[in-house]
Write a structure and sequence with these properties.
The protein has two domains: about 100 residues, Immunoglobulin-like; about 280 residues, Rossmann fold, CATH 3.40.50. It has seven helices and 18 strands. InterPro entries: AB_hydrolase_fold, BD-FAE-like_dom, GDXG_lipolytic_enzyme.
């Protein structure tokens, strides 16, 4: 009898967790064809500030690309970051401009971000710290747009469809945002405590969760970062890349670089742990072959763009999906963050497509047993952890879809 009750409880939780949030309308060629010939670019939008390696304060800027004349109320967003080995580069480089413009012509809102650069001396610890600082800035950019979606809605972003990607160093950032989610996964020599937390400080109070990662010639510090349940991954990488290895190696082939794992390793790892993913292998291609104006570079740009386009569109829901008026009013699934939560509190954020109403909430453990009941009073609320041990829990209310809570 106990076993039956447990099975019914788990089945019920799975049904709650499968509740879909509001979908994106992909009809009429939207997100497939360049139906918006003109793109509006808003330059130098400030998305936060951060302390540089030199101890100064940097104003973090982004360029925003929007389809001109678009009237859709909630749009997917792609945040992109430029290359430059965490030492150089800027948000309006040739490739960033090209891919952000082309995605905006499909109907996406895109943002090319600047982030903190610089490290010295050239060793594993300082390279690692530079990559963490940059990823903190990308997380701040995600929270910037999620805050806007919850408040002024100036950019008309759908908060459930925020994707992050980049080229070379920018791809490292996006991969860390998507898959480096535990402080214990950061190598000890990086000394994460010196940098604060993985999340950083920009635009606090909102989730930095993304819906997918775009990895263009990037790598990770460990393939073990990719775990079951992680977001989908799109990779484009040349097999003759001498800067960021396609498989396993060191950046630039230099001993001062930590060992890194490129797209050729990430693909089988993602397959094994069940992460939806695609890898476009560019046979014989060097590092970032799409960045340039030569005939070959233009061809690689087309291939890269098409790969990203075809990866993203199904994630917006199946092609041809049409939303009913009722479906558009569905409440988005709440956000629970950080994932995992290792501090004294974790945060709840309700959806934004319907007015929030205070309600009773419960936390259930993996067996379906209620371990805490409390009143959810505000759309964004901090919940004290109290004596709850590490593990996986489920947040349940009468009105909102259930969400997983991971405590470390």
């Amino acid at each position: 009898m106990k076993r039956k009750r447990l099975l019914f409880t788990v089945f019920g939780l799975l049904l709650l967790l499968s509740s879909a949030s509001a979908q994106i309308d992909t009809t009429g060629g939207r997100y497939r064809r360049p139906i918006f010939p003109q793109v509006t670019v808003t330059r130098a939008v400030s998305y936060g500030t951060a302390t540089t390696v030199a101890g100064t304060t940097q104003n973090l800027l982004l360029d925003l690309y929007e389809p001109a004349g678009d009237t859709v109320r909630r749009r997917p967003l792609v945040i992109m970051a430029h290359e430059g080995a965490f030492a150089t580069g800027n948000r309006d480089d040739q490739f960033m401009t090209a891919i952000c413009t082309r995605l905006a012509q499909l109907g996406y809102v895109t943002a090319s971000i600047d982030y903190r650069l610089g490290f010295f001396p050239f060793d594993s610890a300082n390279i690692g710290r530079a990559s963490i600082r940059a990823s903190q800035d990308m997380r701040a950019a995600v929270r910037f747009f999620r805050r806007d979606a919850a408040t002024t809605r100036q950019y008309r972003i759908h908060p459930a469809y925020i994707f992050a990607g980049g080229s070379s160093a920018g791809a490292f950032m996006a991969l860390q945002l998507g898959y480096l989610d535990k402080p214990a996964e950061v190598p000890a020599y990086v000394d994460l405590a010196q940098l604060g937390t993985l999340e950083g400080n920009g635009n606090p109070g909102y989730s930095s969760q993304i819906a997918g990662v775009i990895n263009l010639c990037g790598a990770v510090g460990s393939p073990a970062w990719l775990e079951p349940g992680n977001v989908p991954l799109c990779s484009v990488h040349g097999t003759a890349d001498a800067v960021v290895p396609y498989n396993i190696g060191r950046a630039f082939g230099q001993s001062f670089s930590p060992r890194i794992y490129g797209s050729g390793v990430l693909k089988p790892r993602a397959d094994v742990v069940g992460i939806a993913n695609v890898l476009r292998t560019l046979r014989g291609a060097p590092h970032v072959p799409y960045n340039g104006t030569s005939t070959a570079a233009v061809a690689y740009t087309d291939t890269t763009f098409q790969t990203v386009r075809d990866f993203l569109r199904p994630l917006l829901r199946q092609p041809g999906t049409v939303l009913s008026a009722a479906a558009r009013q569905q409440t988005e699934a709440p956000q629970v963050y950080p994932v995992p939560a290792s501090g004294e509190v974790f945060y709840l954020e309700a959806g934004h497509t319907a007015p929030f109403r205070p309600q009773q909430a419960e936390l259930l453990d993996a067996t379906g047993r209620v371990v805490r009941r409390f009143r959810w009073e505000q759309p964004r609320m901090a919940v004290p952890r109290g004596a709850l041990p590490a593990g996986s829990y489920y947040l349940r209310t009468a009105e909102l879809p259930a969400r997983r809570v991971v405590l470390q």
